[in-house]
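Lab notebook, bench 4. The sequencing result for the construct came back, and we need a structural model before the next group meeting so we can plan mutations. Quick request posted to the team channel:

Model the 3D structure of this chain.
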Amino acid sequence: MLDRDGFRPNVGIILLNLKNQVFWGKRIRTHSWQFPQGGIDRGETPEQAMFRELHEEVGLRPEHVRIVARTRDWLRYEVPERYIRRDARGHYKGQKQIWYLLQLMGQDWDLNLRATNHPEFDAWRWNDYWVPLDVVVEFKRGVYEMALRELARYLPRNDHRNRYLRSGMRAREHDPHGPHGAPHHIGMPGVPPAMELPPGATFDPNPAGETSPVPKD
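Done. Here's the predicted structure in token form:
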């Protein structure tokens, strides 16, 4: 379902933990990482689509999260032609998205990347709020920045680090094995053996530097 300008209606999800870190998922069988997102089906509201995608992609139900805020208007990005199916070229331009900021009210083990028979992610991690801007594929970077900036004002005030300006956050050195950027993993050398993970979480020490992904709905 495309609008008259060739953009598909879509929802994006920024999921926070209690430290105001954001969920960051690795697309299945690729080296690209992104926020959960997905198309709005005919007859669905953006909120209905968001809850459906939340379950399909990360296994969470409405009772596991609290809606903190959403973007006021559609945010758009165009997809480079090389990533568009040949039969869709000339019609499909990209995505227009409503973004939701959610707070996880459950536990890490409530996340399940294998909630359906068609998983979208095969690994995940918690990142500091602004880190995704440094590692997301370039053609999505603008819309990520618009969404993160608009929703940052609604961040729960439970961690003083999240009051830093984006420039200050990006200037920090992010150790891929540090406490705030560390991927969820199990049975890896140098990792505390008591660390257990939800189904589908795997270890990938460095999501940066990946090649561009084929865009998802």
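The longest helix spans residues 138-152.
Will bring this to the meeting.
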